[in-house]
Design brief:
The protein is an alpha/beta fold and about 550 residues long. Helices cover about 30% and strands about 25% of the residues.
């Protein structure tokens, strides 16, 4: 009996051989590419990319991909696997200089992608050759042999460099080896109930971990097929699911919330979707989504780094991430385990000051393999002895874990530490608020003040004075929680993975139109010039320009 593959390259070759005629890559307006046909295209890409392989021993063979979601993205992925190259997913939403930094930092030998994105990279000072999708590249591929070049990576060779979201700082490139990625693919295939006849749906950006790890690699692990949408679309979601027979979907961030905000239809559950697998879903929204669309939602807690993971099960307490697995604990600043949260029947944490700490995997790094060329950041995660998630949380007496924000989302208002996530959940109780984002902005005297940016529900007026009045009257509202500044928007700025781009909210926040300041006489439009004068008088004016 043939031994099972121990690399992603071996897995893809097994599919090309054993499932040669099975559909793999579904397309609009045409028949799906079979695994065999995909293998021929991937082999051509492997040979073309191989011409950029470094000639110096020890230099990394890294291929950047800078493109919107498309079948071609997956074809390059297949080429990288067969060529033994490390694929580097470059974030299409970053600016020219940032893209050039990312490509240089990861030492890309060539960057492949859409012409428009590559033009931006070139404008930022790209040092690597650029290979644009289009007629010229198609001609070059046609001249390449369609047979597998036969490169054999090992389980410890790098398959991917995947950038973190970078919502608060420059993103870091997470190392993911063939062996670890293969294990993740098998695990997530089980969670998505992926079988050979299943169809996966990709509408999260392919350069991030969610789309690759939750959909593409599990499909290859089981011999299933996938459909790649250009982007997430509320209006197009159900049409895509029905048209392509989608049975499982991978999400991250707030897509469930946005879909649930769309008008319900009596036939919403009449669709083939069986499982949605993702993370950061609100537990109440997950349950409502499952009921409305007739599927199971498997929401997980984790990060691109993979150092800690928690799976929420049906019946777990509302709002919880799930039962903390062995070794995962909530630690205080001194490294001691925080006491269990004293949770009231309405969900209020009576001892938040003691119970909230950082979520840490105390047994080691688990699947975290470090950051590329960033030993300081790798060490900050625990240096191999532990894995520090960077997230705040608390655990109840039964061991269920709850998310309380990011460690950089601590606010210190009038000497009191606050967690942004708790304030956000309180603001979202207002019927007109779809999503609340809370960030700390500087106070003219010392510490921080609370800025709340509220995304209104579709067709809702969302009066910020009413939101603050209801919040202030809520018995769960802490004495320092009420926002000092508030702004209502139609849409929050999001990262490509549909997380709130908090860095964007903080940047020159006081100059954004519609920002209101809470004063003793009520809410008034924020005057940027007067605010600057207040900060200048206390010697903190420089903080407004950070």
């Amino acid at each position: 009996m043939t031994a099972p593959p121990n690399t992603l390259t071996g897995l893809l070759r097994r599919r090309i051989s054993d499932d040669h005629d099975r559909p793999f890559l579904r397309r609009d307006g045409g028949a799906a590419l079979t695994y065999g046909e995909f293998g021929a295209i991937a082999s051509r890409w492997a040979r073309l990319l191989g011409t950029y392989r470094p000639t110096s021993t020890g230099d990394p063979f890294h291929v950047g991909v800078l493109a919107d979601n498309s079948p071609a993205w997956l074809e390059v992925l297949g080429g990288c696997l067969l060529a033994g190259a490390t694929l580097v997913g470059l974030n299409t939403t970053r600016g020219a200089a940032e893209l050039a930094r990312d490509a240089a930092h990861t030492r890309c030998c060539v960057v492949v992608g859409d012409a428009g994105h590559l033009d931006r990279l070139a404008a930022g000072g790209a040092g690597a050759p650029l290979l644009a999708f289009g007629p010229d590249t198609d001609d070059a591929l046609a001249c390449c042999d369609a047979t597998d070049p036969g490169t054999e990576p090992t389980p410890t060779d790098l398959a991917f460099l995947i950038f973190t979201s970078g919502t608060t700082s420059a993103p870091k490139a997470v190392r993911r080896t063939h062996g670890r990625a293969l294990l993740s693919a098998e695990k997530l295939a089980d969670r998505g109930e992926v079988t050979a006849d299943a169809v996966g749906y990709v509408n999260m950006p392919l350069f991030h971990a969610a789309a690759l790890m939750m959909v593409v690699l599990p499909a290859i692990a089981r011999g299933a097929s996938v459909y790649v949408a250009p982007r997430f679309s509320v209006s197009g979601f159900l049409d895509d699911v029905r048209r392509h027979g989608v049975t499982w979907w991978g999400y991250t961030g707030k897509p469930l919330t946005y879909l649930m905000a769309s008008p319900a239809q009596p036939d919403d559950a009449d669709n083939p979707l069986r499982v949605a697998v993702g993370n950061e879903g609100n537990s109440a929204v997950c349950d409502a989504f499952a009921a409305r669309f007739g599927c199971t939602v498997v929401d997980t807690y984790g990060a691109t780094e993979g150092g800690v993971g928690v799976v929420r099960r049906t019946g777990d307490p509302p709002g919880s991430l799930g039962l903390a697995p062995p070794g995962v604990a909530v630690l205080a600043d001194d490294g001691s385990v925080c006491p269990p949260a004293d949770v009231a029947p309405d969900g209020t944490v009576r001892n938040a000051g003691e119970a909230v700490g950082e979520i840490v995997n105390t047994t080691g790094v688990n699947a975290f393999e470090g950051y590329w060329d960033n030993p300081e950041a790798t060490a900050a995660r625990g240096g191999g002895r532990t894995y520090r998630s960077g997230d705040l949380g608390y655990a109840d007496a039964d061991g269920y874990l709850y998310f309380a924000g990011r460690t950089d989302d601590w606010l210190r208002v009038d000497g009191e530490n606050l967690a942004a996530g708790a304030i956000e959940r309180l603001l979202e109780r207002h019927p007109d608020v779809l999503v609340a984002a809370v960030v700390g902005v500087p106070d003219a005297g010392a510490g921080d003040q609370v800025l709340a940016v509220l995304q209104r529900r579709p067709d809702a007026h969302c009066d910020p004075a009413d939101v603050l009045a209801r919040t202030a009257a809520d018995p769960d509202c802490g004495t320092k929680w009420l926002p000092r500044y508030v702004r209502v928007v139609d849409a929050l700025p999001l990262t490509p993975t549909h997380k709130v781009a908090r860095r964007d909210l903080r940047h020159r926040w006081f100059e954004q139109p519609g920002t209101l300041e809470r004063t003793s006489t009520g809410l008034v439009p924020l005057d940027p010039d007067r605010l600057r004068s207040r900060f200048a008088a206390t010697g903190r004016g420089h903080l407004l320009d950070l």
